[in-house]
């Protein structure tokens, strides 16, 4: 029954991850049908990521206090309704409202699913295998979203990139009711820490939105600096509130433990590097190689396949060697993969220049995501598993926003510099674009290298520590 529960939880996680990218390829078609202006089209993506990232911690704590399965089911039903609203939208407001609601219910789904996983699988070897499946879906779902988005847009309609979630979510509801036992919520002695909930939600929204504005308006724009400054100040206030609260939304012992802190910092750094690959290879496939949206999505297919294989291998290595060596190797493979991609030049093709690097990166991401999830939730008390899962998701969301803004800005500047330095070269636009991608790949490799250093210095768990930690952790009571 546990493994059927993993199927249901994985399906829900796949929906959440897919929806961050599945509409990317479909967006031009939605823009045409709904007469969305160029200035507003970003909200089809930003409305989802902003609300999702901002509400994650609150959603995780609600899962702890109200029951993980209950919040998981509420998230699934809400996600189904929101997806239908967005997919059937007749105007801009309805689309953006639906996307925002998707983000809100995803903020319930994601931490509830990961915390259920952590309390259902308590044996260290079974947990490693379960995390391997979950990690493969989390890391590969971004690429799979591009494939699904391209196929649905090309052969059906852009609306189906959203509507397809509704039947999947409803099937997952039936599956959850059948195979996931009801858990007993954590006892609560105080209120919901509303000051903490408000400050962290507004702080995360401001940070994520600030980075998304930086990609469009620049890092020194008053709006960018104002949002990032306000978000940082609110998060600082949140830390003060949590330190003084008798019933904190986020007990500071969760990020304060060195291994867990290292995993969370890794979760912040890795998406920055990942976006170097996804974002700019997507441009390269379509703008340079002339691939159609579906062909571009298929070109990414080796990535999720490689992650799945690597995650399966990692699940057997983790109990033997512990997380640090496998995660360091994963990060270094990420460095090699992006440095390899950074050698792209005009006239190169997919098979020899891109595919091998993509496979190397995929084999690095598998160990990173499996180890990261295992360490981030190790020895977490059952009553804190929801908010710990939410913190891991929030770190990844912020990292993704940072990666998009930072690498987009740097690549634009690199392209302008190349044009200024080589005004007479043939195929100038194409060469400048590839040069800008190479710069982004090198920067992404730097973040992989930084993650390797963090892992080596902060993640100290041995295999026996993980086993003992699982035995000491109090599993959430499950009742039939």
Automatic annotation (TrEMBL):
Membrane topology term: Multi-pass membrane protein
Transmembrane parts of this sequence: 42-59, 71-89, 101-121, 130-152, 158-180, 192-212, 218-241, 262-285, 297-318, 325-344, 350-371, 439-459
Native organism: Nocardia coubleae
Protein name in UniProt: MFS transporter
Domain spans labelled Major facilitator superfamily (MFS) profile: 5-463
Alphabetical UniProt keywords: Cell membrane, Membrane, Transmembrane, Transmembrane helix, Transport
GO cellular component, one term: plasma membrane
Family annotation (InterPro entries): EmrB-like, MFS, MFS_dom, MFS_trans_sf, Sugar_transporter_CS
CDD domains: MFS_MMR_MDR_like
Molecular function as annotated in GO: transmembrane transporter activity
Highest taxon above the source species: Bacteria
Subcellular location field: Cell membrane
